[in-house]
Each structure stands twice: as structure tokens, then as C-alpha cells.
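Hello K.,

You asked for the raw outputs rather than the summary table, so here they are, unedited. I folded two proteins back to back in the same session to keep the settings identical. This is the first:
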Amino acid sequence: MMSGQQVSSAASKDVAWIDGVAIFFAVLVVCLVTTINDYQKERQFQKLTETADAEKTVCTFAHL
């Protein structure tokens, strides 16, 4: 005859993989969100750099 603790232990072994899978997907989501955010920031920076390069002005000083 099995005690209550043994049944609980056996049942937890059957679903223990769920914790690992949940942690894996949580880390995956965080990595994807971070990657997408970094990519968007990089694109925005490139656009700003292109705009700044296009709008360069040259100042010259002459002695009169």
C-alpha cells in the first residue's frame, strides 16, 4: 500500500518536465523581445545617422 507522500511524489515526477519547459519558453520570450527591441533601436539609429550625414553644413570664415 502506498502512502500519500509516495503518490504525490510519483505524480510530481510525471509533470516535473512542465517546469523546465515553462522556464525554457520564458527565457525564449525574453530573448526574442530583447532581440527585437535591439534591432528596432539599431534601425532607428541608422536612420538618424543617415539624416545627420545628409544635413551636414560647412562653415567657412574669411578675413575681410
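The second followed immediately with the same parameters:
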Amino acid sequence: MEHLEEISTEDLQKALGKVEEKKPAQRLVAAVTYKTAFHRVSLPSGTELNGNRSTIGSSDSTPTSPS
């Protein structure tokens, strides 16, 4: 969602207040949620973002659940 970097959360919320159709409203809610949640996430030490996945800096490929 790189294109969201150019749009402020405030602008998305204003647009949400004006939209009347369900699908565009859902998309705007998803965009606002993404922008607010993405900036609050703290990744564990040793984590690198790799495309759409995060990679833990170990050779263990076993998935782990968040704490």
C-alpha cells in the first residue's frame, strides 16, 4: 500500500465522512486502519521487512505466534 504514503490519515477520514456507498467506505476504513496500525507496530529485534513478509533473523523457519 505504498500509494497511501502520499495521503494523510486526516484526508482519508474526511473522505470517509463524505462517502455514501458501502464498498468505498470499507476501502477507506481499511486504509485508515492500515495507516494507523502500521505506524504503531513494533517489530521484534532482528526482524527485517522483506516485501510483503517479515523475516526473523534466524535460520528457524518454524512460524511463531505473536506474544
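The chain has a mean pLDDT of 74.

Happy to rerun anything if the numbers look odd on your end.

Regards,
P.
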